[in-house]
Amino acid sequence: MRAVDCVGALIRDEQHRVYLQRRTADRRLLPGIWDIVGGHLEAGETPEEALAREVEEETGWKVRDIVRTVADWEWEWEGRVRREVDYLVTVDGDLTRPRLEVGKHDASAWAGPGDLDLLMVNRTDGDRRLRDLVAHVVRTRFTDRLRLEPITGPNGVLPGHSADLVRMYADPWVARWYDGSWSPEEAAARAVEQQASWDRDSVGKWIAYERESGELAGRGGMSRIPAGTPTAEAIAALVGPEWTGLELGWALVESARGRGLATEIGRAGLDYAFTTLNASSVIALTEQVNTASQAVMMRLGMQYAGEIRAEGWAAGEPDVQPDAPFAVYVEVRT
Hints:
The protein is an alpha+beta fold. It is 28% helix and 34% strand. It has two domains: 6-138, Nucleoside Triphosphate Pyrophosphohydrolase (Alpha-Beta Complex), CATH 3.90.79; 140-332, Aminopeptidase (3-Layer(aba) Sandwich), CATH 3.40.630. The protein contains eight helices and 15 strands. The longest helix has 18 residues, at 184-201. The chain starts with 5 loop residues before the first strand and ends with a strand. The relative contact order is 0.10.
């Protein structure tokens, strides 16, 4: 692999927003676009040294911690290929007062889920890779033991999650509840669907990795049940009109079960719904026979709202049933 040419700093605040700055209109490379902090390595520098220098030069802040390497990718400009490594970092300094580097940047902003298209302003080539990279970081969450990444397909910067979805749905425990494993083609299609959901609604599932080992743990988070479907109407009849279709869910591979990880995913999902999306209510549902998931819902403080019927597993039946009983739990915040 070629040597690293440049580095990028994905500086994130406590609201999970990423810091952006606008390149001046007279810059030779990508004038007038919104960008992350970063630049080229100088002679003799390591990528980490260049990262610290660029952050201080462009913002006045100091790197406190490199949380993780997010991306290692290549891009081309005017016939030259550059290898870039991008890091999620925390910084020390007054985050309300960045010191813009004179002659290089003329504006700054903190980008949340609703601000991602700022990265396409003045982007005459239509290249979405930086936008998708920032979206990935804005939507990622960390719990005590898990890293929760928004499920996506490959986008030219990140490899996507279809291979891990194949692994996950090949797990016997997961396959049992979801009626079989996924082929690579189905997993790839589902990953693209999830990315579209994130982009359309700022809602989608995360894939969960254990922070210490990097091992796949499962998936979970929020999804939106389409309005007007029989399931949505049955749930709304139980929980009331303030519900906007948000559903919390999780699934763990067998090796991750029994350790409280589903509860960590659930708490992160509820926090995302109520803090980031400003939701008023969230439901979770599972077959009545799935007492383990119901126990998680109760640990999260969700309240039992009642029962609906939908396709799923039922007690004493060897196959999926068209009208299995499901328990519905709800969390309401005003």
